[in-house]
Design goal:
There is one protein chain. With 200 residues, this protein is an alpha/beta fold. It has seven helices and five strands. The protein has helices spanning 52-65, 76-82, 84-97, 132-155, 161-164, 170-179, 194-197; strands at 13-19, 28-34, 68-74, 105-109, 121-124. A hairpin with an 8-residue loop joins strand 1 (13-19) and strand 2. The radius of gyration is 17 Å and the shape is globular.
């Protein structure tokens, strides 16, 4: 099924999505993208089902052809302070803040959002597999977050971030158990499998 080009024909729509919500380390990223109504790309889809190579190729195309785009993030400290849902919404607002033109409508992936100014919005579950602009936002959020995790991996090479990007793989949990946490770990998350390591 090809993605839908828009919800509202006569409004500039910004698609919004986040990446890294379920990770144990690193910031949560979000992107906002306003695409031309006639934007078409057969490869564009929810970034999770695309290959890494396709995501980076598409990032260049999206940034070249978008009317506007912005990328925002919320740090692991902010996640611990205000919780991951609120931090994800904060990252989305920061991405929207970076748009060079104001959208008339916001399409949000998922089921939760805090109103952004007086701009109307709609939450769409699995929206990154339905609308071009949300899928484009998912690609930007994911690739920018992956880039950062590769840089953080150089600072803290023991955690496999170049492979797991901070997600909760068994390898990642075991290295936290072995080496402890870094300043980038989300201390409010369950970082090790307590039942696995602390059985009586």
């Amino acid at each position: 099924m090809p993605l839908k080009p828009y919800l509202n024909k006569n409004l500039d729509e910004a698609g919004c999505d986040e990446a890294g919500r379920g990770c144990l380390a690193g910031p949560v990223f979000a992107a906002a993208v306003i695409l031309p109504k006639n934007f078409r790309n057969s490869v564009l889809n929810d970034s999770k089902v695309m290959s890494e190579k396709d995501r980076y190729k598409l990032r260049d195309i999206i940034e070249r052809e978008a009317i506007a785009f912005g990328v925002g993030q919320a740090s692991s400290e902010e996640i611990d302070e205000i919780n991951i849902l609120n931090a994800s919404l904060l990252a989305m607002h920061r991405a929207l803040d970076k748009l060079t033109c104001k959208p008339g409508f916001i399409l949000v992936d998922g089921n939760r959002f805090k109103p952004y100014g007086n701009i109307p919005h709609r939450c769409i579950v699995k929206g990154d597999a339905i609308y071009n602009s949300i899928a484009a936002a998912s690609v930007l959020a994911k690739t920018y977050r992956d880039d950062l995790m590769l840089r953080l991996h150089k600072e803290h090479p023991g955690y496999g971030w170049e492979r797991n990007k901070g997600y909760a793989t068994q390898e990642h949990r075991q290295t936290i158990e072995k080496y402890g946490t870094t300043p980038y770990h989300r201390l409010s998350f369950q970082l090790v499998e307590w039942d696995l390591f602390h059985q009586h």
